[in-house]
Specification:
mainly alpha, ARM-type_fold, elongated, ARM-like, Leucine-rich Repeat Variant, ARM_TBCD_2nd, Tubulin specific chaperone D, GTPase activator activity
Length: 846
């Protein structure tokens, strides 16, 4: 022992690997030795070891000093009848205090295992102390739970308290008030690492339920603990904390019974382990149900939401919380007062944003909103001058929320002043920074309320102010025409959000086609423009969002029985279903398939195929699509036909094949998918198309190639046509002579465009090469040969590195190319022709 102490003293200032082993050896000697040993008598040695950067060394040191301290207390004095006798027989050396200070210091350690070891060691020591000295050490542990301490200190102290309660080492009667205060503060703490404190508080509650009868605690104590545990179990954003609090509450409910906890059995059943795994279910399912049992549960949850979870930097989290608050809110004036206090803090934009959003959700009176409008306007003007980009982005969200608060206010002058001073500086910031992956439909709709005012040139009177801000305020008999004007004006990819908002406004309006023919025609054009929006930019396929909104728009009107009798809209709805069933976007494909099943009767589509019908108890029935989610739909369809999702065309081929218009829509979408597909996907698509007659399919292709372009959606579609024609022609799916001549002319015209990519160029070469080699038509064959050589010489000057690929794409042998080189296809002068022919022969020789 003396040797080990000497080695430890030597290595304290310059620790080595052996230091941990020496301390661990001393710990085992202390554990198994029958005699008292003297170790680490100097305070500096203890503190040096406990402040080491080695986590394992700190942990073993805390174990050692707890065992040494416990060795001084061989008997348990708490069973003595006379406290005076206990005090007379109690005697410990002076270093005992140093060891206790070391353990209290370990409660604040940054490592969880060190804190656990110290808490367990203190619990073992306190069990052996006399009653006179026990309360002093317990109070020292309680003092660690103060506002000035860190989250680590709170965690260590609470673990120690839980250990003392588990072993019944402290008197509940003497410490009940202090214990309730500590637990309440722990549940509602706002530390950065608050989860560790909440977790330890749940452990204390669990230990309290197991060790203390409810009669000693009282109804008020047990109900307050239960309220906090339920709020934590339902509302905390960390799944581990929710489940930990639920386990502690179930322990309390089982041991304290319904007379001490209201509706304990129902609440314990609701806070199920699996239900709490989903935050949405926990918020809007479990929390809402529990709040209906007792008023105390509702108020506690409301306070937790306002104080703890509303101030979140993430927009989605704040929206979720504010939505739940609006469900729990029942004219609680203290909520509004709390928000007014938050609005006074102009430095914290997160608190300000949360307050604005919450006030826009609450069902406040006009007088309350007018009162709040003044505070909101004043603080927002202070934020406008801030140049911080993050604050500016959130300021735009604040502006949207403020507008919703103000629009029902009676103070029109205040609204006008607010709009003119604050709107323009932040609205355009949002549109400049908008990315497709960050698109938020609800938020964008709010922003567009602001943009409509910024873009308006003049307002004649105060009532026109909100009309200019929001399309929903436009009079009903002018709404569709107004929307159509904006839809035609805003056609660029950067303005896709404006088109989405127009469709949102159209969806919200209850149109009656029989009342106004002009409105009906405007509505039809708006939805048609949305369904054919294939705009794209560096952000991706921004038109996909517009198409999705247009589909939902016509579906909502159709299901509301506004347009079912209108043949024009019925046909448009069928076209939309065809387009979505063929889409490459999985979400759109599922939406199209689901709509096809659910609205088959509305669309008057006879679905007779056994592929779409399940057999149960010898009776055929069609899927009940009313409440079927996308995931359930996908599972049901995969049971019926595994290829249904992969090949959307198969779903409605037998349904729509008799309608020329719908068949054209199907083929158009299917051919477009080829542009983005792999070879195996192209092969599967071809198998479907080959069911059509050759003249019909190539007539469809020539129709798409009518106006040659390589830009945008139409350019992608035409490239897809050339790609799939090349594939089919090489599979002997050849058109007739007339169609082949027209196809070659279209392909040559497509290849003559500027800035054509190499894949399209090579695909066109492949088609022309096939014609040269396989079609016995002299005029057509010679024309293709001339075009091939012309583009081979001219275009490969820019693509010399890939010129060999071009040669191979001709699908010709060397002799044929040699013969073609003799053709004077350009009527060039002799010198240039010979140079190009010589270069071409060199390439062929390779």
């Amino acid at each position: 022992i003396s040797f080990i102490n000497q080695q430890i003293d030597k290595q304290i200032n310059k620790p080595k690997k052996e230091l941990t082993s020496f301390v661990q050896l001393l710990s085992f000697i202390q554990r198994f030795s029958q005699q008292k040993i003297q170790v680490l008598q100097q305070t500096s040695s203890i503190r040096s070891l406990l402040s080491s950067q080695n986590r394992e060394l700190r942990k073993i040191t805390s174990v050692l000093i707890s065992r040494v301290s416990a060795s001084f207390l061989q008997k348990s004095y708490q069973t003595k009848e006379s406290q005076l006798k206990e005090a007379q027989q109690f005697d410990v050396p002076e270093e005992f205090d140093f060891y206790i200070d070391g353990l209290l210091l370990c409660l604040s350690d940054s490592d969880q295992f060190v804190r656990q070891t110290a808490a367990f060691g203190l619990g073992q020591i306190i069990q052996k102390l006399p009653i006179l000295f026990l309360q002093e050490l317990v109070q020292a542990v309680f003092d660690c739970c103060s506002e000035a301490e860190t989250a680590e200190t709170w965690n260590g102290a609470l673990q120690c308290i839980g250990e003392l309660l588990r072993t019944s080492s402290i008197s509940i009667k003497d410490n009940k008030g202090q214990l309730l205060k500590i637990l309440t503060q722990a549940f509602q703490n706002k530390f950065k690492q608050q989860n560790m404190v909440k977790d330890a508080a749940c452990f204390v509650s669990w230990a309290l339920a197991r060790s203390c009868p409810p009669s000693e605690l009282g109804t008020e104590f047990t109900q307050q603990i239960s309220n906090n545990l339920l709020a934590l179990a339902c509302l905390d954003r960390d799944i581990c904390i929710r489940r930990c609090a639920a386990a502690a509450f179930q322990e309390c409910a089982g041991r304290w019974r319904s007379e001490f906890i209201k509706n304990s059995i129902q609440c314990a059943a609701l806070v199920d382990f699996y239900k709490l795994g989903d935050l949405e279910e926990s918020y809007f399912g479990v929390a809402v149900q529990i709040s209906q049992f007792q008023e105390c549960y509702r108020v506690t949850m409301l306070k937790y939401l306002v104080d703890q979870y509303l101030m979140n930097q993430q927009q989605a989290a704040r929206t979720q919380v504010t939505t739940l608050i609006s469900k729990l809110y029942q004219q609680d004036d203290w909520v509004v007062e709390e928000m007014l206090v938050n609005l006074e803090d102009i430095e914290d934009w997160v608190r300000f944003s949360a307050s604005c959003e919450l006030l826009s959700y609450l069902p406040l009176s006009v007088e309350q909103k007018t009162q709040l409008a003044k505070a909101l306007t004043l603080q927002l003007q202070n934020f406008v001058s801030n140049q911080n980009a993050d604050i500016q982005h959130h300021l735009t969200q604040n502006l949207c929320s403020v507008l919703l608060v103000l629009q029902n206010s009676l103070d029109q002058q205040l609204i006008s002043q607010f709009v003119k001073q604050v709107f323009p500086q932040s609205v355009r910031y949002y549109f400049q920074d908008l990315a497709i992956q960050n698109y938020d439909r609800i938020f964008s709709n709010k922003v567009l309320q602001l943009k409509r005012h910024v873009d308006s040139d003049q307002t004649q009177r105060d009532d026109d102010l909100l009309n200019a801000v929001n399309l929903l305020f436009v009079e009903n008999n002018q709404k569709a025409e107004k929307c159509l004007q904006i839809m035609k004006k805003c056609r660029s990819a950067a303005e896709n959000v404006v088109r989405i908002y127009v469709l949102e406004a159209v969806s919200a309006h209850n149109f009656q086609p029989s009342e106004n023919q002009r409105e009906t025609e405007s509505l039809y054009q708006i939805i048609s423009l949305g369904l054919n929006d294939f705009t794209s930019d560096t952000r991706g396929d921004v038109g996909a969002l517009v198409r999705h909104k247009a589909f939902n728009c016509i579906k909502s009107h159709f299901q509301a029985q506004n347009l079912q009798e209108n043949e024009k809209f019925a046909q448009l709805y069928k076209i939309a279903v065809c387009q979505f069933c063929c889409s490459r976007v999985e979400q759109m494909k599922l939406l199209g398939i689901k709509t096809l099943f659910r609205d088959a009767n509305l669309l008057k589509i006879p679905i007779q195929s056994q592929k779409y019908v399940q057999v149960q108890q010898k009776e055929d029935f069609i899927f009940d699509m009313a409440e079927l989610t996308n995931e359930e739909l996908q599972r049901q369809i995969e049971k019926s036909d595994s290829a249904l999702i992969q090949n959307g065309f198969q779903l409605f081929k037998d349904v729509f094949i008799k309608d020329p218009t719908l068949k054209f829509v199907c083929l158009k979408q299917l051919v477009l998918n080829v542009c983005y597909g792999q070879k195996d996907e192209i092969a599967e698509t071809v198998l479907l198309i080959k069911d059509l007659k050759q003249e019909e399919f190539y007539g469809f292709v020539l129709k798409l190639l009518d106006k040659i372009t390589n830009q945008g959606y139409q350019g992608q579609l035409q490239f897809s046509c050339i790609l799939i024609s090349n594939y089919l022609i090489h599979k002997n799916y050849v058109p007739n002579t007339v169609q082949l001549k027209l196809l070659v002319e279209k392909i040559i015209a497509y290849m003559k465009q500027e800035q054509i990519n190499f894949n399209a160029f090579q695909t066109g070469f492949s088609v022309l090469g096939f014609v040269v080699k396989n079609i016995q038509e002299d005029e057509l064959q010679q024309s293709c040969k001339n075009e091939l050589l012309q583009y081979l010489v001219h275009r490969t000057v820019k693509l010399r590195e890939q010129s060999f690929d071009v040669i191979l794409s001709l699908n010709l042998d060397n002799q044929q190319i040699e013969e073609m080189c003799q053709v004077d296809w350009m009527s060039l002068n002799v010198q240039k022709a010979e140079e190009k022919q010589k270069w071409l022969r060199g390439v062929v020789g390779w």
